[in-house]
Amino acid sequence: MRIILHVLVILVFFMFGCKKRLSETDIERNLTVAMTRFLNSPPRVDTSKVKFTVVDVTFFDNKSSYECEFKIHLVSPGKDTTGIMAASISKDFERILRKN
User: Is the pTM here over 0.85, yes or no?
Assistant: First the structure.
């Protein structure tokens, strides 16, 4: 009985103790979604007039965050432009700190 309990504990440990490693494509997609959500959120911008779209992302996998550079397309009444934004995004894709 004791051996079965030990095996069960070890199996549970391995099932919940291992984190899935994200592929580079998954990371890019998650960074793009996080930055799009950040830029188009209502407290920062009137989404009925201004719309940000992330065109491309370049990132460096730092120890505690992703250091990113985004190519952003901005559309507003009478304006249509593309620019670059830099940001640091946490590993859980929740905290975003714009750099410029």
Answer: no
